[in-house]
C-alpha cells in the first residue's frame, strides 16, 4: 500500500469520526470545564434587569457573579451538614449495593451454570429488571415498600401480615434508621441480573478440563469453586465492582422517584443534593462544586481501572 493511499485512508477515518470527536469535546469536556469554572465563582442567584437600552421592554437575567476561589468546596466539607450526611449515605449505599449484587449475581450464575432445564427462561426473568429504568424501579418499590398505616398495611408489610411474620413489619424507606438500606433493595433488584450475566459469561469461559483435572486429584466441589473458579473470576468481579460503583456514586433517578431526600436526609445523596441546590435553590456555584466532587469520586474509581486495563493490554 502506497504512502499516499495510507494517508488518504487515515484522513477519511478521521473525517468520519470528527463529528463524534467534536460532539464529545463540546458536550462533555467543555461542559466539565465550565462546571469547574462555575464552582469557583460566587454565583448564587439570577438578578433581573429591565429596560436595557436600546430595548426598554427587554427583560434579561444576567447572573450576579464574582470569583470565590475554593470557598464553595471548603464550605461543603467544613460547614455543610447535609453534604456530610450525603457522603455517609453514599458510602453505605455503595458498600451494601455492590456486596448484594455480587453475592446474588454470583449465586444465580452458579445455579444457571449447571445447565438446568429452562435456563433461557430463568435468564430472561433475572435480566428483566434491567429493561426498565431506575425511575420505573423507584415507582415500583415505592409502592412495594410503602409501610401503609397501623391498621392498613400494604406492599411487603401486608405480605408479612398474611404469612404470620407481622413482627418484621417496619417503616422501610420512611424510617430514618433504615432509609438508604431500603433503596439498596430496589437497586439490587435491578442490577443483580446484570451481575449474573457477567458472572455467567465468566463461568462459561472456564474450561471444563480444569474442573475435571481437579476432581481427578480428589478436590471437592467447594475446593474447586474456592481455589479455581473464584480466582479465575477476579477480572469479572473487578469489572462488576467498577460498573456498580460508578452507578452507586452518581445515583439520582432512583432516589428522586422512590424517596427524595427522606426524613432527616436519610436517603439523600450528593447527586440529588446537587440538583436540589442548583435548580431549586439557585445556588449555581455550590451545585457546580458538588458536581465536581462527584466527578472526582467517580474518576477515583474508574481511572485506576482504565490504567490497569491499558497496562495489561500493553504487557500482553
Description:
The protein has 316 residues and is mainly alpha-helical. It has one domain (82-315): MetI-like (MetI-like fold, Orthogonal Bundle), CATH 1.10.3720. It is 69% helix and 3% strand. It has 13 helices and 2 strands. The chain has helices at 3-39, 71-79, 81-112, 119-127, 134-144, 155-162, 180-204, 208-216, 221-232, 234-249, 253-258, 270-280, 284-315; strands at 49-52, 55-60. Strands 1-2 form a two-stranded antiparallel ribbon. A hairpin with a 2-residue loop joins strand 1 (49-52) and strand 2. Helix 10 (234-249) runs antiparallel to helix 13 and helix 12 (270-280) packs antiparallel against helix 13. It is flat and about 75 Å long. The two termini are 28 Å apart.
Characteristics:
single chain; two-stranded antiparallel ribbon; 316 residues; 69% helix; mainly alpha; MetI-like fold; 13 helices
Topology:
Elements (H helix, E strand, L loop, with lengths): L2 H37 L9 E4 L2 E6 L10 H9 L1 H32 L6 H9 L6 H11 L10 H8 L17 H25 L3 H9 L4 H12 L1 H16 L3 H6 L11 H11 L3 H32 L1
Antiparallel strand pairs: 1-2
Helix pairs in contact: 1-13, 3-7, 3-10, 4-7, 5-7, 7-10, 10-13, 12-13
